[in-house]
Design a protein that fits this description.
two-stranded antiparallel ribbon; globular; alpha+beta; 174 residues
């Protein structure tokens, strides 16, 4: 969240904007450098914390949305939305040693990842009801998950034998 003050950020939907976050700061960018500057500012505001498994563990997911508009000389145009999402990794509480605020963050991260997994599973099983409203993450990504879109998933896995269970779980999720 760029320029974050203590505002309430609610997820809304409208015919004009689709699904969006209310009270969020939007920044016009005109170059690749501008995009990277915005990513840097947003990443600097992302909360990280120390756990037994990771000295700089992300304590939240990060969604960076780019709105694109292609305009023709006659005024006609097309709009597109590109979501770049960095999911905080799930963690075994017993292994990470999370406690206090870090424990509460881990619970919320794990719950939202479970909701995302359920949405993806439901989409692939051709079910009638997709539980997008189960979490803010799945609601925000609803158009990317089930709309007219393409989704690519990249995962980061630990090469350490100590983390084999987490690596296998990550690959199964992917």
């Amino acid at each position: 969240l760029l320029g974050v003050e203590k505002k309430k950020f609610s997820i809304r939907q409208s015919p004009q904007k689709g699904i969006y976050v209310e009270n969020l700061h939007y920044e016009y960018v005109g170059s690749e450098s501008d995009v990277f500057d915005c990513i840097t500012v947003g990443n600097e505001q992302r909360k990280v914390g120390r756990t037994n498994m990771n000295a700089v563990s992300s304590r939240s997911h990060c969604v960076f949305t780019i709105y694109l508009r292609q305009q023709e000389s006659d005024g006609a145009g097309q709009d597109a939305k590109l979501n770049l999402v960095d999911l905080a990794g799930s963690e075994k509480i017993s292994k990470s040693g999370a406690s206090g605020e870090t424990l509460e963050e881990a619970k919320k991260i794990n719950l939202s990842l479970t909701c995302l997994s359920q949405c993806i599973h439901t989409l692939t099983s051709q079910s009638r009801h997709i539980p997008y409203r189960s979490s803010k993450l799945t609601r925000l990504l609803q158009e990317s998950l089930g709309g007219n879109s393409k989704t690519t998933l990249m995962v980061a896995c630990s090469p350490s034998p100590d983390n084999i269970e987490e690596t296998i779980a990550t690959l199964r999720f992917a």
